[in-house]
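Hi there,

I know you've been waiting on this one. I reran it after we fixed the sequence typo, so this is the corrected version. Both the input and the resulting structure follow.
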Amino acid sequence: MDEVHVVTGAFGYTGRYITRRLLARGITVKTLTGHPDRPNPFGDQVSAMPFNFDKPAELTKSLEGASVLYNTYWVRFSHGQNTHERAVANTQTLIRAAEEAGVKRMVHVSIAKPSLDSTLPYYRGKAIMEQTLRESKLSYAILRPTVLFGVEAGEDVLINNIAWLLRRFPAFAIPGAGGYKLQPIYVEDLADLAVSVGQQSENVVINAVGPEIFTFDELVRLVAKAVNSRAWIVHVPPGLALALAQLISLLVGDVMLTGDEVAGLMGDLLFVDSPPPGQKRLSEWLAQNAKEVGARYASELGRHFK
């Protein structure tokens, strides 16, 4: 009997690379998606089913026969009814459905430094989901990435849009002193890690980080050099940087940056001092993709809500 794995968001960013690896191993893949009617890049190799968070019995049925569930579902920011609180409730419904369906293991993509005590809904919500998974009947692997980059320029949001700004504007505003750190991981490395721990049975929590550590100031200057930007890199109060980002958001019809994201960035929540499972260096990837990175704006709303 064929082994069946389920990936949430196989048509999206991280889920797509996880799915490619599973298919290469001969594993049958199904996906749960919020956009079942969108074009399927995998054709008849991957069957798509709606999340059905509001229909738990149907969600459970969708998971029957699967041994491993890879969960990449989350919302970057609240938008309309898609709030962090709702995302937490939906994920808890997903975990219960997986238990009832007989799924054995869940590989959950979380975030670095989640905390039940956090004042930031993103990090608090991720912590609640981790706690729910740990208390479930499922064996689990919790992966905690920081910032993703690659494979193709324009797929990630943060790195690409920093480059997009540096290409088009005379100045780039860094919130505060810019000394807070980031430890980006290549999306292919994250996908390799996810599939690897999916084959195991031990409960693990892994900081999914790459081999390079940058201050935000260093990162911006690295990207600027890669795209030959002449933009003036200036340090401004966080509130002003956020206001400028919100102004540009109006121009592009997106949410470029939120106050919570500024707080998380400046709070060093995108940096973890631990051995990196990721191997690909952002500096190398930028050099290889300098012509393409930032050539087009990466819209969060365009990907998920339009």
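Quick highlight: The longest helix spans residues 84-101.

Best,
R. S.
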